[in-house]
């Protein structure tokens, strides 16, 4: 009877053939040809231990305050927090994979990500307690390696989702992807923050002690570091940096003469600043500017005689801020989004968006030009750019709203809290 149950479960969801700890028949599985089953049974018991725990969430302000008087003890406690917290957060997502319909979970691309998650889960949870700076350096090295290996997760999920469009409902795909992406952002934030603090700490030891050996921090040594968080990020400067970069990329992709891509006018409260992880905000801004730029050039190309650079309307980026929030409006005259498309812009399962996922080098002409080294850049979206941008905004307590004037243009509003006091929002559906 138990065996029957096990078989039933096997066709139900991905990998729960070994998620049936109550079944006494488990003993007999050892004699089955699949020698992995007992091991997987054990692993799932371990997974249970972690997935039954909640994430210990942090706010940007906490990250900044933590780095303020950074001492060796504090750095080691940060290391041990990351060491114990990452496996909890990964375990929740491994469970999500296991809840996928069996046929979707065994898709090779999904499977690859699932295996990567297991690998990282095991490697991090098995890392012994970090008691010295040397332990911490080894730990950071291991985290950096994982961050690199996991850069293939987004394209693989893109390919996987594309192949599962007929197996899972669009709502299920969107929920699955939102959970995957927000958890990924959160894990990478913790890992990158800790690595940045550790590097900064090592640099400070070197500069204070003037020694080449990093074995011991000078007595009473403390420093103020903020890692990847910028406590007062100059938004106008960040926008300007993104604007220059995207104009150059589009000129290259569309073979336009230098300085002829649509202008990007930054206006409003140019003195505003706020607490953020600049990489996250750049991702969002870049994505929205890319969409605007593409729409304007497409509209320009549709005109007889091709693109007339002088006649292209500018993109207006307006900054507005109050005590609590900062809002950035990106306004274009690129023709707008038709009403029938609008409800689908936040979806990961829009087949039109994913039409070229078979070869993710060819997502569009712009991205096709991106070299191998840039393929892991946060600027590549693989068709997920818009929903992923909203996940970034919501993760830090903000949001993105898009208003379309079909036939005319689009206004996108990014709102973000200024003070960094919101804890991570990990429950985005
Ligand atoms: C991810 O990028 O998905 C991670 O979980 C990174 C972490 C293992 C350091």
TrEMBL record:
SUPFAM superfamilies: alpha-ketoacid dehydrogenase kinase, N-terminal domain, ATPase domain of HSP90 chaperone/DNA topoisomerase II/histidine kinase. One of its GO terms (molecular function) is pyruvate dehydrogenase (acetyl-transferring) kinase activity. The keyword Kinase applies. Coiled coil: none annotated. Pfam families: BCDHK_Adom3, HATPase_c. Its EC number is 2.7.11.-. The keyword Transferase applies. GO terms for biological process: regulation of glucose metabolic process. Residues 57-203 form the Branched-chain alpha-ketoacid dehydrogenase kinase/Pyruvate dehydrogenase kinase N-terminal domain. GO terms for cellular component: mitochondrial matrix. Keywords: ATP-binding, Kinase, Mitochondrion, Nucleotide-binding, Transferase. Gene3D superfamilies: Alpha-ketoacid/pyruvate dehydrogenase kinase, N-terminal domain, Histidine kinase-like ATPase, C-terminal domain. It is found in: Mitochondrion matrix. It comes from the Eukaryota. Residues 278-418 form the Histidine kinase/HSP90-like ATPase domain. Belongs to the PDK/BCKDK protein kinase family. PANTHER family: [PYRUVATE DEHYDROGENASE (ACETYL-TRANSFERRING)] KINASE 2, MITOCHONDRIAL, PYRUVATE DEHYDROGENASE KINASE. This is Protein-serine/threonine kinase. It comes from Mycoemilia scoparia. The gene is PKP2_2.
